[in-house]
Structures are given as structure tokens and as C-alpha cells.
Specification:
The complex is a heterodimer.
Chain A (H helix, E strand, L loop, with lengths): L4 H16 L9 E4 L17 E4 L4 H9 L3 E6 L5 H10 L4 E5 L4 H11 L3 E6 L1 H6 L6 E3 L6 E2 L17 E2 L2 H10 L4 E3 L11 H12 L4 E2 L5 H8 L3 H18 L2 H5 L1 E2 L3 E4 L7 H12 L4 E4 L14 E4 L7 H12 L3 E4 L18 H18 L7 E3 L4 E7 L5 E8 L5 E8 L5 E5 L5 E4 L2 E3 L2 E9 L2 E7 L2
Parallel strand pairs in A: 1-2, 2-3, 3-4, 4-5, 5-6, 6-9, 9-10, 12-13, 12-14, 14-15
Antiparallel strand pairs in A: 7-8, 11-17, 16-19, 17-18, 18-24, 19-23, 20-21, 20-24, 22-23
Helix pairs in contact in A: 3-4, 6-11, 7-9, 8-9, 11-13
Chain B lengths: L2 H9 L5 H4 L5 E5 L7 H11 L4 H4 L3 E5 L23 H13 L4 E6 L8 H7 L4 H5 L5 E5 L10 E4 L9 E4 L8 E7 L1 E3 L3 E3 L1 H4 L6 H4 L17 H5 L21 H15 L4 E6 L2 E3 L10 E3 L3 E5 L2 H11 L19 H7 L12 E3 L2 H4 L6
Helix pairs in contact in B: 3-5, 11-13
Classes of the chains: A alpha/beta, B alpha/beta.
Chain lengths: 466, 371
């Protein structure tokens, strides 16, 4: 018997949202979800979070999430019950499995086999993530908690660049993105036993997003409890977090842009990256725009418009790759090569920061890099941004550039000036609160400039040639 | 007699000058915040000093700013003008009044921390609106005096009379190629000198290329990237040999002895014609965020005078101190009194009884920095 047309339409109307709207892994905007009651899903309203990482859940909750077009990943941690837990999760119809931690290869393979077509995301250490990068996306649980580094006595720590040092994951993120096109998640958690201010969550989101990654939103226990009770201040902070996520997710074109800068840093993060990542962090603190290039993507096009290049680990390059750099210097480019014996080391175990000896070596090469860069304008020079980090991106046709600015201090920054060597026709300020304001571009002795009156946590300047 | 006692005796020779040290009136204005009309306040103060017309008309004026330390180092993340730098609104207002008084060229100078790059970079890094200050008057220029800058040679400034530390200083040309020299300072404590006002502000005139820790041994290092600890504060090394050398090198390494005397020598070598002190908002307990224990204060006052010692004496009194206090007493627990040393050089009188104060009375604006 044929069902009445109206009936099929009704059935499709139910099914389509269930299947058609569940996003692909590349579009997942993740959050660890500490609740398993269906009403908690109301918190997602108006925001872009569409992938929940769950430790406790029910089939009903999973179904309710799917009905809203929200993917669900069951988080499993290493242990003898991992495979059984994966089967239970799959039986509850989760969208996929998130293996958080470094699992034995056999277990990973068994979980993937059990998952069939369902996604299995490994949230691994950085070194494992770089070694095994065959999942739907790259994810690591290792990351620093972003912010201005504060010493025990409350003072701000100054780094070798002389400015206040900012703890950031941007160097690592940019290095990974230069090496792989896969989406990257940072799943580091807020510092334990610490009350985390709402602004710090915003900084964590912006720190990752401004460089093209996604931070897996993770709330500290206190905040989660207050939000669970729908306390007004917690809800307001949550709305701001959703707005910050929505700001970046609302501009998918930014994710497709490439790093811009007349300084190129050749590095192979798969073979190391600890030192060159440190150089990237230091260049970021100095607000020098730089484009990291993985050796296997090193070619004339990648070096187009670059005037300087840094090659940290010359021994890691093939003769062909070295020849590309030689051609770059023959064309007038300046090349800084690390001294013989330099290795861009791979992080060992859980360590993701440099030890004292590595810091000293980083200091050596940093002096040379700093001397080479000087006060040249390699894409943009920024002023009054000591508590900020920036990232400059350019569209494929080179007509549009994006300058992301993230403020890591507890105070808004006023009177930021950006100077450009290139004359743009239009500059527009965009902020997460929805502001879109034309900025005046004026001529300076060394190029062009624009002023930004005030930046709270994050702002973007869109620069257009046409 | 020890060598130190001998140096002290030699230094005390011009004691007679104290009685005849010149005086000039000092103006004080209350100004609770930078949101008030700073320009109007300064206008009244300059009128109380007799007007700036005669001093400034058709003159090149060089203004030494106080922008100590890296602009990236902040007190609680606040703009440096609200804590340890002079505030850009005061800078702009001063430029406006000098231009209005007929100055044909107004050159702002400073030797910012560890760089010989353009001063405009430091100004922008400090969150100042460069274009607003630039347009406050005609002929506004900027010069970083940490090295040669825009000049072709250093200018030599002999210390007349009996110098304490140096027979002469080699400074950036801007300190010589000027008709009028203004010290635009902040009302602050200083970790070594006790107070840092219009006199101490000029310690920053010393180019790091010659007096810096990594100054060249024989000739200036035109790319200095450090402070003046080794040469100025500690006397661990001489300045570049191209410049006049320290008179009694090795005799004294204590910063509390050395820095006040270098400042006093500078005050007589490069006279200050107009001293302006920004005490609207500041810090107490030290001169910058690198000093532990500093705190933010709001004295709400502007001070200006035509003699730097008189002006600093009044400012020291406004801070709740005796401007003629001896070493060991507040605010000079570990240093000799810079004002007294400058007075001995005949720069000006630090004796409040001899100084005419116009505008607000000292007792009405006292803000105790040690409270």
C-alpha cells in the first residue's frame, strides 16, 4: 500500500533535519558537554556549537542532540574497557568516538573497526597527533592556557623580546596548518583549581580561531555548575562565548585564507617544530607577520612576495628544497639559516614548552632573526599592542587581507595603530559584538596606516585593494 | 682622608653658590583628571609665570619628555600616560601653548628604552595619538636622542665650574640646536633618587649609544639596545672614548651617589628654561612598573616653573617631602639630594622660603606619596 504523499512529506520532514543537518567533521564546532539532560541543549540556541563531547549521556540525549543537528562524540580515555565503552557508545547512536589520550595502536584500530562508518577522532598528545594524522581532523589535548604570563608574585613576565610574554598556542597552530589542511582542534582544559574569568574563555577561543584552529570549549567546574543553574552572570558570559565563536564561524572565508607576511619560516613540524614554533611565538609577540612553510610545500609560489626567509634546521631539507631556497636568495631574498648542528627538535612525552638549554639556543637564533627583521614593515607594523597578538591572512587572489587582533589583558586596549607597506583602498573594523565600521586610511612616511580606537578581546581589520 | 671624602670635599667647594642660587616663580594648578580641560589649566599657569611669548616667539623649542622604560611594560595594564609616562593630553596641550606663543619649531625628544628607532614608534607604542599631538601646533617634530638620530654629530656640553662626575657630556644634536629647552616630567618617586621630576627627567638625555651598557668602547654604538646601568648607575665602565670620560672613575660605584650628581651636572651643562611636571595621575614608590611595591596615585596637580630646581622643590613639597632633606631622610633614604646638589651648582634654589608660588598653595594640594 502506498502511503499518502502528505504522510511521506511528514516523515521526510522529521528525517531530513535528523540526517541532513548533522554537519561533517570539518564543520564541527566542538564543546565538552558536562550535562546529559535534554534541556541543557537549549544553551546551544543562537550559537554555532554543533558537536558535543560527552562523558555521560543517554540514548535519549543523543537522539535529542541529533534532532537539533548536533553531533555527539563519546569521550573515551585509555584503559582496558575502552573497546567495550566504544561499543556501548555506538549502540547509543552517538555520531562518533573521541579517543582522548594516547591509546595503543591495537585499541585504536579495534575502535575504528567497531565504529564502521562513524567518525573516530583521536585527541592525542602533540607528538602522536603529528605522527598519526589520518583521522577526519587533527586534535590534541596539549596546549597552553592563553594569556599574559603572570609570575607567582603577580608581576607580568617579560620575554626575550622585551614585551610582556603572552602564553599562546598560535605558533603551534600556524605550524600545523602550514603542514596539513585538516581541521585542527585544541582540546586543552582550563587550569585546574582556578576560577577562570569569562574574558579568559574568550581569549582561549580567539587564540585558536584567529590562527584557524578551534578550541574545544571546556568549562571549569564552577562555571559549569553556575551555568547549569542558569545563573544570570554565567548565562551572560556563555552568550559572549557563543558570540565570539559565532564571529569566527560566521566568516568561513577567513579559514581559507593563507598566512601573509614577507618573512617566511621554513619548518617541518612533523620532524620537530619545538624551536621553530618558539620562533613563531616570538615573532607573534613582536607582531611580525610571518608565513610558515612546510618543506614539502616549499616552492616558488609559496615564497612569492617574501623578502626574507628563516630556515631553522638546514639538515632537515632535501637537496631540491635547499635549491629552492638558493633560488630565493639569487632573486634577492635574505635567508637566515640556523648554525650547523641545529635540530628543530620534536617534543618529548608530555612536554610542549622549551627547556632551559633549548631556550638559550632559541635566544641565539632569535637575536639573528630580530636583527634581520629590524623595524621593517613585512606586511604590517602594529603599535600599542603589548598585550595583544595578531595574525595577518590574505585571500587567494591577494585582493583582501585580514588582520586579527586578540587582546590578552584584563583591560581594553585603546589607540592601536597599524601601518602597512601596501596602500589598501578600504579598511573595515569588525568585532564580535557585530560592529562593522569603516576606518580611515592615511599616508605615513613609510606607507599607510589606520587607527583603531578600542579593542576589548578581539577585533579584525579587513583590508581591501579594490 | 679617603678618596670618597676627598671627592665630597671637592664637590662641596661651590657651597657659596647656594645663597646666590637664582629663583623663579612656580605655578601650581589643581587638575583632578585628564578629562578636565588640561589646556586651559596650563594656559592659566603659563600666564601666572609671566607668559611664554618672550621665551618662545620665533624660537626652536626642544621638549624632553618622560617616557621611561619600554612602553610595553604597563602598570596593571593601564596606559603608561596614566601611570609613569607624561600624559599625551599634557604633551598636546604644551605643544598648543608653545605654538600659540610663537614657537616656530617644537621638537619633542626622549631616549626611549633600548632603541635608536624613530621616537614616533615609541609614541605610537605608548598609545598616544601621534596625529593629534602633531596637529596641536605647527612645526612639531620628534627625535630619538638615544643616538645620533637625525644629526650628523654629537654636541658637546661642558659642565661649567666644578663638575661632580663628568667634565662634559656628548648629547644628541637636538639638545644644542635649540633656543629653548623644556623638561616635561612626571611627578613620581624614584627608586634611587627618591623623586624624579624635571631635573632627573634629563638623565634620559644621555644617549645609550655612548652611555649605555653596550655603548661602543671607542666610538658610539648607533644601535644601542640596553639601559645605562653600567656607565651611569654603577660606574663599571667608562662611556665611549669619543666622549669626555668620568673624572674619578672607579672611586664610587653606588647609584645613590652617582645618579644625583650626574643629574646635577647635566642641569648646569644643559640648562632647562621651562620645567613642567604632570602630577594629575602617577605612581608612588618608584619610577616604573619594574619597581616592586609601586602603587597608582592621583595627586591631581600640574606644576610649572621657569627654574627647574625651584619647580622640583615645590613639586617635592607637594609630594609631602622636605625638598632640602639630607641623605637618609625621606624621600632620600639611599641617595644624595639631587635638588641640593643642583643648588650647589648654582642652578636654582631649593629653599621654599625663597620661591614664589602662584596659583594653588602647596598646603592645598599636598598629596603624601608615602601615605
Amino acid at each position: 500500500m502506498r502511503a499518502p504523499t502528505a504522510c511521506w512529506v511528514a516523515v521526510l520532514g522529521l528525517l531530513l533535519p535528523l540526517y541532513a543537518s548533522v554537519p561533517k567533521p570539518a564543520g564541527w564546532v566542538p564543546a565538552r558537554w558536562p550535562w546529559s539532560d535534554e534541556s541543557s541543549l537549549d544553551l546551544l540556541a543562537g550559537g554555532p556549537i554543533n558537536c558535543l563531547l560527552l562523558t555521560e549521556y543517554t540514548p535519549e540525549f543523543v537522539a535529542a542532540a541529533a534532532n537539533r543537528g548536533v553531533a555527539t562524540l563519546a569521550i573515551l580515555t585509555p584503559g582496558p574497557e575502552a573497546l567495550a565503552a566504544a561499543r556501548r557508545a555506538l549502540a547509543a547512536k552517538v555520531t562518533g568516538i573521541a579517543l582522548e589520550g594516547d591509546f595503543p595502536e591495537g585499541v585504536v584500530a579495534a575502535v575504528k573497526e567497531a565504529a564502521g562508518g562513524a567518525a573516530v577522532v583521536e585527541i592525542a598528545s602533540r607528538s602522536r597527533m603529528l605522527a598519526v594524522s589520518n583521522g577526519p581532523l587533527l586534535a590534541t589535548y596539549q596546549g597552553v592556557w592563553p594569556g599574559v604570563s603572570v609570575e607567582e608574585n603577580g608581576g607580568r613576565r617579560a620575554g626575550p623580546s622585551g614585551s610582556a610574554w603572552i602564553d599562546t598556542n598560535t605558533g603551534f597552530i600556524r605550524a600545523v596548518r602550514a603542514w596539513s589542511d585538516a581541521p585542527l582542534w585544541l582540546a586543552n582544559q582550563p587550569p585546574a583549581k582556578t576560577v577562570v574569568a569569562a574574558s579568559r574563555y574568550l581569549e582561549a577561543i580567539a587564540d585558536a580561531e584567529a590562527s584557524g584552529a578551534r578550541w574545544v570549549v571546556t568549562l571549569d567546574e564552577d562555571f559549569a555548575a553556575r551555568l547549569g543553574r542558569r545563573e544570570a552572570r554565567a548565562v551572560e558570559a556563555w552568550r559572549r562565548m557563543l558570540a565570539m565563536l559565532g564571529y569566527f564561524e560566521g566568516h568561513p572565508e577567513w579559514r581559507a585564507m593563507r598566512e601573509y607576511g614577507q618573512l617566511a619560516l621554513v619548518q617541518d613540524i612533523a620532524k620537530g617544530g619545538l624551536v621553530s614554533g618558539g620562533i613563531l611565538d616570538m615573532l607573534a609577540v613582536k607582531h611580525t607577520p610571518v608565513r610558515p612553510i612546510a618543506p614539502d610545500r616549499l616552492n616558488a609560489a609559496a615564497l612569492k612576495d617574501a623578502t626574507m626567509a628563516v630556515n631553522v634546521d638546514a639538515g632537515a631539507l632535501t637537496p631540491e628544497e635547499m635549491e629552492i631556497l638558493r633560488a630565493f636568495t639569487r632573486g634577492g631574498g635574505a635567508l637566515l639559516t640556523g648554525p650547523p648542528g641545529w635540530k628543530d627538535q620534536k617534543p618529548e612525552g608530555d612536554r610542549i614548552t622549551l627547556d632551559k638549554a633549548e631556550l638559550e639556543r632559541l635566544g641565539d637564533i632569535w637575536r639573528d632573526v630580530n636583527s634581520m627583521v629590524g623595524r621593517r614593515n613585512l606586511g604590517v607594523r602594529l603599535f600599542n599592542v603589548s598585550s595583544m597578538l595578531s595574525n595577518m591572512l590574505v585571500s587567494g587572489d591577494g585582493q583582501t587581507a585580514i588582520l586579527h587582533l586578540v587582546n590578552y589583558s584584563d583591560y581594553p586596549v585603546e589607540n592601536v595603530t597599524a601601518q602597512f607597506p601596501t596602500g589598501y583602498k578600504r579598511a573595515t573594523l569588525l568585532t564580535p559584538d557585530g560592529t562593522e565600521k569603516a576606518l580611515e586610511i592615511y599616508k605615513t612616511e613609510e606607507g599607510w596606516a589606520t587607527d583603531i580606537d578600542k579593542i576589548a578581546v578581539c577585533a579584525t581589520v579587513r583590508l581591501e585593494q579594490q | 682622608m679617603t678618596r670618597r671624602e676627598w671627592i665630597a670635599a671637592v664637590a662641596a667647594a661651590p657651597l657659596l653658590r647656594a645663597a646666590e642660587a637664582p629663583v623663579a616663580p612656580v605655578s601650581i594648578a589643581k587638575c583632578a583628571s585628564y578629562d578636565e580641560d588640561v589646556t586651559a589649566r596650563l594656559g592659566v599657569m603659563f600666564d601666572q609665570l609671566g607668559g611664554l611669548g618672550k621665551l618662545m616667539a620665533n624660537k626652536t623649542v626642544t621638549i624632553k619628555l618622560n617616557m621611561t622604560g619600554s612602553p610595553g611594560q604597563r602598570v596593571e595594564g593601564r596606559p603608561p600616560g596614566n601611570t609613569h609616562f607624561v600624559h599625551p593630553k599634557v604633551v598636546g596641550a604644551v605643544a598648543y601653548h608653545l605654538g600659540r606663543a610663537g614657537a616656530k619649531r617644537i621638537r619633542f625628544v626622549e631616549s626611549p628604552w633600548a632603541t635608536a628607532g624613530p621616537l614616533e614608534d615609541t609614541v605610537l607604542d605608548s598609545g598616544w595619538n601621534l596625529r593629534a599631538i602633531q596637529s596641536a601646533a605647527a612645526g612639531v617634530e620628534w627625535e630619538n636622542t638615544n643616538a645620533l638620530g637625525k644629526g650628523k654629530a654629537y654636541a658637546r656640553f661642558p659642565v661649567p665650574g666644578s663638575p661632580y662626575m663628568y667634565p662634559a657630556f656628548d648629547l644628541n644634536h637636538a639638545y644644542q640646536d635649540t633656543d629653548v629647552f623644556v623638561s616635561l616630567a612626571k611627578l613620581k618617586n624614584h627608586d634611587i633618587c627618591g623623586v624624579t621630576l624635571s631635573l632627573k627627567n634629563c638623565f634620559g638625555a644621555l644617549p645609550a649609544s655612548i652611555y649605555g651598557d653596550n655603548a661602543g668602547v671607542d666610538a658610539p654604538n648607533e644601535k644601542p639596545d640596553s639601559g645605562r646601568e653600567a656607565v651611569g648607575h654603577r660606574g663599571r665602565r667608562q662611556p665611549s672614548k669619543s666622549a669626555p670620560q668620568e673624572l674619578h672613575f672607579g672611586a664610587e660605584h653606588e647609584p645613590g651617589y652617582r645618579v644625583p650628581r650626574i643629574v646635577a651636572d647635566l642641569a648646569v651643562a644643559r640648562p632647562i628654561h621651562l620645567a613642567i611636571i604632570d602630577g594629575v595621575e602617577s605612581i608612588a614608590g618608584g619610577e616604573g612598573p619594574w619597581i616592586s611595591g609601586i602603587r597608582i596615585v592621583k595627586p591631581g596637580v600640574l606644576i610649572a616653573g621657569l627654574n627647574p630646581v625651584c619647580t622640583d622643590a615645590v613639586a617635592t613639597a607637594v609630594m609631602g617631602y622636605d625638598p632640602r632633606a639630607p641623605r637618609g631622610a625621606k624621600p632620600f633614604p639611599h641617595a644624595d639630594n639631587t635638588l641640593w646638589l643642583a643648588e650647589q651648582h648654582g642652578v636654582g634654589a631649593a629653599d621654599l622660603k625663597r620661591i614664589e608660588v602662584t596659583g594653588a598653595a602647596i598646603r592645598d594640594v599636598v598629596y603624601r606619596f608615602d601615605a
